[in-house]
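P.,

For your records, the input lines for the assembly:
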Amino acid sequence: MNIGEIARRAGVSRSTVSYALSGKRPVAAATARRINEVIAELGYRPNASARALAEGRTRTLALVIPPASRRLTNVQLDFVATVVEAAAAHDLDVLLSPSGGDHDRSFERIVTGRRVDGVIMMEILLDDPRVTRLRQNELPFVTIGHVEHPGGSWWVDVDYAALVRRCVHHLADLAHRHVVLINRSAELVAAGYGPAVRSTAGFQEAAEQRGLSAHVVCCADEPAAGLACFEQIRARRPEVTAVVTINEAALPGLQRALHRAGLVVPRDFSITGVIADRLAEDFHPPLTAADVPAEEMARLAVDLLVERIADPAADPRHALLDPVISLRSSTGARPAR
Amino acid sequence: MNIGEIARRAGVSRSTVSYALSGKRPVAAATARRINEVIAELGYRPNASARALAEGRTRTLALVIPPASRRLTNVQLDFVATVVEAAAAHDLDVLLSPSGGDHDRSFERIVTGRRVDGVIMMEILLDDPRVTRLRQNELPFVTIGHVEHPGGSWWVDVDYAALVRRCVHHLADLAHRHVVLINRSAELVAAGYGPAVRSTAGFQEAAEQRGLSAHVVCCADEPAAGLACFEQIRARRPEVTAVVTINEAALPGLQRALHRAGLVVPRDFSITGVIADRLAEDFHPPLTAADVPAEEMARLAVDLLVERIADPAADPRHALLDPVISLRSSTGARPAR
DNA sequence: CACCATCATCGAACCGGTTCGACAACGGGA
DNA sequence: TCCCGTTGTCGAACCGGTTCGATGATGGTG
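Structure tokens returned:
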């Protein structure tokens, strides 16, 4: 079951078997055939640990995800699925590491134990201790999202500020004067979660530029919170006629709240924001929104990581994606009062 | 950075460092302290590949998931998250392997390359070639779901037949006479996906017992299909007053279809089925349903696997869970005609 | 004081691959 | 015929840990 056994049965040395398998040195055709026959017969496959030890690489990537307690959103789920798929295309396996803001055991084990050749990190904060940790550990990594000072880092992100800015301009063009941004949870904002912070900035900037009255509210990532959040907006600021949201988990609740309030979208109220296309289509009516190209980002992240692993001294690369807004049917002109 | 370097700096042999780390043989207190100081100073952590090679175990589990193309449902997502979390509690890492019905590269690599100590398989079929593969490979594994003839296998499952039977009885008790089961997609049923097949059996059995007119329809796992599916039911069988469903992905569409048809739940129409509690609560009104205890199953699967790895000769164990139906507000007496 | 257990440590073998340098066999050119 | 380059294969070292048997130091006992 090991390479020595194959060598013995094929009547050659272990190194010859190794070369026949890897092709790194030529092997006589007849010998190669004999070796392959034995291998096929025994269903042999090299031991991954031994190979990793000898080669100095594990052919495995780590994907750092938020801990199980924090539910994954659809976009995050798309990241995970696509990262795994893209890695498989490179014949790489993916090790999952659930990790909170601080370095826990799983993260440490992976980072310092040379368990993987590289790391992809999702859900990083503007000032993330784990990024610092990876930097000092000389382990190639790519982040989905970027820290505040990403100098020298490799990353892939969506320009949330630009997207939200564009949403606000779109609403302003439709004559809306009072708008609200429904952000992610207060904890995420407080922790310095990039998209939440950058969205706020983009929102306020565009609103000021267009002279809109604009407010930002935080909302937990769940339907019930979306419902409560909207009812609060209606109660406190009845003049609001449109919302921008980056909180897709809250959408079902938002939808129910609109229905309960007897508001018809987009006749009485407009909604837009940054929402996965699949969800946007499911909404009723379909949402005018900027889709996060999760698959593209994940694929890009894997490709960048593979590149960085191949050449650790290469110049840092990054990609800031700026998807267009898909005009569907959830936004309309400000209703006459 | 390796154990030899630590040994050199601490002025001891490599084996002493190893023993100090593992505690498998006593080491003098003074020596241990010196070694620990050096380790702390250098931030040393044993190379995982070398350790795996020497110990003959990788401290890693594989989790076989459906391929990325087939979107994960919420229940499946809960499985993944909880498996990772439960494995972390045992200091085990989790390798993700997306695998279709047939054995693809990733699956083969993991199974025959001794990359992992054990495997957890989700989404298995009644007659699954991968289960056969694992059996002949002497790799410990636990399935979430069970094959048709699970003799000697280790598994965890929910008794879908019993749950659906119970749903039917519940509807019969409410005087419904014409019911429909909205099943998972036709492809899944055709492939022999356990929950889909067993639900059908339980549904028909209970319906016959109570003398109901009962039909089963397949429905793709997406909202749009749920909508189309329901409209078809209304068109073809207007006498139907209640549905049972195990297709949670189709629920939003179902909800929209009900709304579009002007039906109020549960006054005009009843819905029940097997649906994750989180989703059931999000529905409007909250769904009377049997919750799949995904977290419990995942935790159980990991615990069983750990047990089986520790003692590969142990007698096979399994758990067939049978959660109760949570009475919420989506079922009511058959409307008077 | 001699003897024997116990304790702490060491050296060597091993896990299962990869890779490097060496070398034999062979064929072609001078 | 001699020399040299090429081709195919082998043996040994190495990757970085774990583990076993051996050994020297120590201390208690008869």
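Two observations worth noting. Chain A has a mean pLDDT of 92. Chain A touches chain B through 48 residues (CB under 8 Å).

Regards
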